[in-house]
Automatic annotation (TrEMBL), chain B:
Pfam families: SMC_ScpA (PF02616). GO terms for biological process: cell division; chromosome segregation; DNA replication. The gene is scpA. Belongs to the ScpA family. Its main location: cytoplasm. Transmembrane segments: none annotated. This is Segregation and condensation protein A. Participates in chromosomal partition during cell division. May act via the formation of a condensin-like complex containing Smc and ScpB that pull DNA away from mid-cell into both cell halves. InterPro entries: ScpA. One of its GO terms (cellular component) is cytoplasm. Keywords: Cell cycle, Cell division, Chromosome partition, Cytoplasm. It is found in: Cytoplasm.
Length: 221, 275, 221
């Protein structure tokens, strides 16, 4: 085994683990290579040992966990990293709430189906946030090209909203009568939006907080 | 700025693969037609692949290797009208913008036939110059859009790196959500999608939907599950009915399949995607 | 500045960037330290230079984008990493990309102005998608009847496309001045002068009307 080749496998493993942000098994890492290029299991394991060494003295480390390997921020830096998340989260975007409500009422539903109803693409961040909050989960894959994931709500979702079952959600016919409270809340929301857009002249100023709408990803990533 | 005409309507893709515009009579239509004749089936597809009258005009100009600044208005007008006429005779819906452009072209053409009047004030714009300006203007942004599509971007060429968090001193707070907000969001999206007009949604029992999700998660993976195991007797009659309705709905939506190897043999269920 | 101390700042920066999974500004990185421990701006920048070097030959790199620094997978490894994700990356329609490019190069711009240039109406879904992805935002309203919203691009747009500023966008092709076009047409029509096409010469002539927008950062900064 050529050293240069090994270094390349190591770099690809590192790249994949960082992009995944979750544990990957040796098999999953090997699957990233095309068949005629796929390193044997032993070679991949050797590359991971090298990667572990290469992380010494850095901000992160390679950890072996039940489902494979993952790159993790070193615990000694937790006090600094924790300050990243100290700020109060903003509110969820309208897009996220619409997506969540469609999953609740139309589950199991794929991202494409949500997009069809909303008429707008759904960003991966929204799905990720909902999965991370454990309000939705993947319950299978639709048997169409691309095998898209089907989403459904979880028990945690019901718990959060104090429901024992989905049938306790208001029926759609009641949702239709929301026009009244709707107008009220919308008025409030528009007040906020207008306030934000009146800061338009600051386009060039380097203020990371002046994104127009609340973006949960910013605080929650 | 030197797009070959064939390239105009192809979806730009990083990998350079050709994406067919559409399937026409089962065959993929990859290239734009090189001559004026378009098979009737392809006409709607052809027109849909343009982003409006300016895009269509640019295509006609580029196809003949004409310089935008020297376009032969009467020739372009003739070709443009031919397309519009063909579309109209097929009774396809035609966006108003195309008709406005047809009128503009006709006006330019007729003006060019008239003797030129020498007027003192040159205030009035030459309509042909105005057309050329619009074409140029559109073409530069069309090109800019193609450039942007080729630029490296997140989730396709760039992946941001992240590592798992260690044990943290405090947990991060999540945003609070009020049920009212959630319902309002649903109200908004349904209103937009005009789903209230459909009775389909209202009739659906949410408990059935919930059970559908549950059954799907039980069936995850390749395994077969016996039909009986999907029911919990302790739930009583109503629970069994809900489960049964959920199974029927899942079969209807082609999400699961029910297999019985022999007459009176055990019935098994599995997800369709596992096959 | 003690070398060991610098190495520690570098490791903390790396840990924070990987924990955030999104760009952080130098200021945000400095904020992670307590007041009496906070490295001066210059020191933090120096640590980032060291971090950039320390990523050489690895699976990821430090990249400066509009809203700060980001650790990201090296582009050369994208083909392997892309296999991690079941879903294909989203494609964007020509209509969306053309609308986006008009907002990017001509900001602030109203929907009507976009429609004038494209020669077709812009669907509300396109604008909504762009707003939801936080690539564009409303920066004000034009003072004409109907007070239409003016759109501009955001830092998130630049981040998404790996850019630090609008000036890194590919240059717009030149457009020739209307008067000049008029004169040439006249010449042709009168048939006085045979038109020699020498494209290069024409292109090199600047367009006084369009000059400011050709370099979009001028409208922003």
């Amino acid at each position: 085994m050529n050293e240069e080749h090994l270094a390349r496998i190591q770099a690809i493993a590192e790249a994949a683990l960082l992009a995944a942000g979750k544990p990957l098994s040796v098999e999953q890492l090997r699957e990233l290579f095309t068949e005629d290029d796929r390193p044997p299991r032993q070679v991949m394991e050797h590359a991971l040992v090298l990667l572990e060494k290469a992380c010494e003295g850095r901000g992160f480390e390679l950890r072996k966990v039940a489902s494979g390997y993952r790159l993790q921020v070193r615990e000694e830096f937790a006090p600094w990293v924790a300050r990243l998340f100290e700020e109060k989260p903003q509110r969820y975007s309208r897009a996220l709430l619409e997506t969540l409500s469609l999953i609740a009422y139309r589950q199991p539903i794929t991202r494409g189906e949500i997009e069809d109803i909303r008429g707008v693409t759904v960003s991966s961040n929204i799905i990720r946030t909902l999965l991370e909050r454990e309000w939705v989960r993947v319950v299978g894959h639709r048997d169409v090209p691309g095998r898209p994931a089907m989403y459904a709500t979880t028990k945690q979702f019901l718990d959060y909203f104090n429901l024992t079952g989905l049938d306790e959600l208001p029926p759609l016919s009641e949702v239709r009568d929301l026009d009244e409270i709707g107008r009220e809340i919308e008025k409030n929301m528009q007040g906020e939006i207008q306030f934000e857009s009146s800061q338009g002249e600051r386009v060039s100023q380097g203020d990371p907080q002046d994104a127009p709408t609340a973006s949960p990803e910013q605080t929650l990533h | 700025m030197t797009d070959k005409p064939e390239e105009l309507a192809k979806a730009p893709s990083k990998s350079g693969e050709q994406v067919p515009l559409a399937l026409v009579s089962g065959k993929p239509l990859v290239d734009m037609p090189k001559d004026l004749y378009i098979p009737p089936d392809a006409l709607a597809v052809f027109l849909e692949s343009f982003e409006g009258p300016l895009d269509l005009l640019l295509y006609l100009i580029r196809r003949q290797n004409m310089n935008i600044l020297e376009i032969d208005v009467s020739e372009i007008t003739r070709q443009y009208m031919e397309y519009i006429g063909a579309v109209e005779s097929m009774r396809f819906e035609l966006a108003a913008e195309y008709l406005v452009m047809a009128a503009t072209l006709a006006e330019i053409k007729s003006r060019m036939l008239l003797p030129r009047q020498d007027t003192e004030d040159d205030e009035e714009l030459d309509p042909r110059a105005e057309l050329i300006r619009r074409l140029q203007q559109y073409e530069r942004f069309k090109k800019a859009a193609e450039d942007i599509d080729q630029m490296p971007r997140m989730e396709r060429d760039i992946f941001s790196g992240s590592a798992a968090l260690p044990k943290m001193p405090s947990s991060q707070p999540h945003p609070e959500v009020d049920m009212k907000e959630l319902l309002l969001a649903l109200h908004g999206v349904l209103k937009r999608a005009d789903l209230f007009t459909s009775h389909h949604v209202e009739k659906e029992r949410l408990s059935t939907r919930e059970r559908m999700s549950h059954i799907l998660s039980v069936l995850q993976g390749d395994r077969f599950v016996t039909f009986e195991s999907l029911f919990t007797i302790e739930e009583g009659r109503l629970g069994v009915v809900v489960s049964f309705l959920a199974v029927l709905e899942l079969v209807k939506e082609q999400l699961i399949e029910i297999v019985q190897a022999e007459v009176l043999g055990p019935i098994h269920v599995r997800t369709r995607s596992a096959s």
